[in-house]
Amino acid sequence: MRRVTLLRQSIQIDIELMDSTRAVVRRSSSHLWFEQISSFKDVIGQLCYTSQRCHKIPEALVKLYGSRVHSLDLSYNELVSLKGLERFSFLRELVLDNNHLADSIVFPYLPHLHTLSLNKNQNTI
Which positions carry the signal peptide feature in this UniProt record (predicted)? Predict the structure, then answer.
């Protein structure tokens, strides 16, 4: 078993990687969860990082999960930038509801993306 630790402000979240076929992380009080079923070489993970009051996508999330996540939920933050999103190269679903994204936001090319949610932002689209 391998253990990975992610720090967000003063919250420590331990991720136990039980084997190469299943990993589940849940901590509802900090609104972070990651679930991946199948091997870590496959791209079938979901990542939820909500209600963290972040203005940009944390570099730790990009480095740890960017190449494995197909579904990303960054709702209820204070995002004004999407820098780092281009490294989520297998992303199919992206939820950015309730952030501070304006009409001028630039989206990177995400070739697999088919679902995008931008409800309740500062955009007029």
Answer: none
Q: What is the dihedral of CA 113, 118, 124, 125, to 10 degrees?
A: 30
- Classify residue 123: in a domain, yes or no: no
Q: How far apart (Å, rounded) are the C-alpha atoms in residues 44 and 124?
A: 32
Tell me the whole-structure pTM to 2 decimals.
0.68
CA distances (Å), 75 to each of 20, 40, 67, 97, 116, in order?
29, 25, 20, 5, 12
For residues 107, 83, 17, 4, the Cα torsion angle rounded to the nearest 10 degrees is -170
Q: Which domain holds residue 98?
A: 2-117
Residue 125 forms part of a structural domain: no
User: Do the bridges between strand 115-117 and strand 93-95 make them parallel or antiparallel, or are there none, so unpaired?
Assistant: parallel
| pLDDT tens readout for residues 48-57 | 999 999 999 9
